[in-house]
Design a protein that fits this description.
Elements lengths: L1 H20 L2 H6 L11 H15 L20 H19 L5 H22 L10 H15 L3 H13 L1 H13 L4
Helix pairs in contact: 3-5, 4-5, 4-6, 4-7, 4-8
Pfam families: IL28A
Family: Belongs to the lambda interferon family.
GO cellular component, one term: extracellular space
Length: about 180
């Protein structure tokens, strides 16, 4: 009888000691990009369909995406910051009002990019100082997003949507944690 009553107590002590060794908040806030190593073809097709549908009627180009460097050339910590910024921009642009037919085409990609943005946020080191290249680009991005004119905003949206496949590639590269 005494052995049976000690068993639950021993299990409780084991669980409590393991809980202290592995804090619960690290599990919920950890970096979980592994699922983006191989993006599900259905999601990739939905994003490409949205890009093609949008590109039929729009032409615009901003200098924001003309970079002399690629994401794979950045250190991993910078790559994660870049992907986080690109996902913030992409979701912001997809959330802008759109014609009902295009809004429906955007629904699934917006859900995907919103989830990816949340996942990437858990990977960004808040104390990280980006390299000079990335810091310069982030400054340009902030300036482009602050632009108040509807024409500039529309151009930024167009360019962002047309370059959305590059955002997917950068997300995949960040998930691989190595050169792509």
């Amino acid at each position: 009888m005494l052995c049976l009553s000690l068993t639950p107590l021993l299990v409780l002590v084991l669980v409590v000691s393991l809980g202290a060794a592995f804090p619960q908040d690290t599990l919920s806030k950890g970096c979980r990009l592994f699922k983006y190593r191989n993006i599900v073809p259905e999601k990739q097709k939905a994003v490409d369909r949205m890009r093609q549908e949008f590109g039929k009627n729009h032409t615009c180009n901003t200098r924001l995406f003309h970079r002399k460097w690629n994401a794979v050339d950045l250190p991993m910590s910078d790559r994660v910051v870049l992907v986080a910024a690109e996902l913030n921009l992409t979701t912001a642009m997809l959330e802008l009002p759109a014609a009902p037919s295009f809004a429906e085409v955007c629904r699934q990609p917006l859900e995907f990019f919103t989830q990816a943005r949340e996942d990437v946020r858990g990977c960004v080191d808040p104390g990280h100082q980006p390299s000079g290249r990335l810091r310069n680009w982030l400054h340009k991005l902030q300036a482009a997003m602050r632009t108040g004119s509807a024409e500039s905003r529309a151009c930024l949206r167009t360019t962002t949507i047309l370059r959305v496949m590059q955002v997917l590639d950068n997300l995949r590269c960040a998930a691989l944690q190595d050169k792509c």
